Fold this protein.
Amino acid sequence: MTTGTAPVCEEKSNLLRVYSFATSDYSRAVMVLHERMRVMSKQDYEEIRAFAEKTRKLADQARAALDKHTAEHGC
């Protein structure tokens, strides 16, 4: 008897988790920049902006890895 669900791909699950963390970090950094940009020091602003850019790049890389895996593995 089948349940009608596809088997879970562990690699895809891991890639989704990495992508989720990266996008969450990016979202939080952008939110902090937006909410506090007028009250934080220029140095703090630059550090958070750099972190936001780093996490954006990580999210892009994670998404590319997920897309590549999905295309190659068919899951």
